[in-house]
Amino acid sequence: MAPPIKPQTKSEATLAPVQTRSAQTRHVQHRGFIFEFLLNNTDTKIIVYSGALDLLVNTAGTRLWMEHLKWKAKDKWKEAAQEPFSVNSLIEGYVKKADNLILYIIFRAGHSVPIDNMMAFREMLLQELVYSEMPTSILNK
Q1: What CATH number is associated with residue 75?
Q2: Contact 117, 92 (CB under 8 A)
Q3: Does residue 4 fall inside a structural domain?
Q4: b/e map 67-97, b = 16+ CB within 10 Å
Q5: 44: domain range?
Q6: Tens of pLDDT along 58-82?
């Protein structure tokens, strides 16, 4: 027979959530450190995208996390305008850019942006990975 479960004292009950929360905070801080390192020390283009209907990793949380990154262009990021992002004359979301950091908010998409709004996802990839690397003389033909 298993021994009876001992009830937690008041101090034990309040410590448990704090320990769990600090472990989560360390994980988020570590992830933020990697992004901050890349933003401050490389010219790597970082593209973050978020489905406007995402309930798992919501857009508000993504924006908040990005606003708290410590990087050399943080002031430019705060001042950068959010521009409409359209596909075939239909606004599919918004894009915000500063230096090598780019945020896309994709409408009509949840956690699975490539499945939920394939056309917007495809256009985002084309704009950032194909068109942005082509000389303008090729694009104007």
Answers
A1: 3.40.50.11320
A2: yes
A3: no
A4: eebebebbeebeebeeeebebeeeebbbbbb
A5: 18-139
A6: 999 999 999 999 999 999 999 999 9
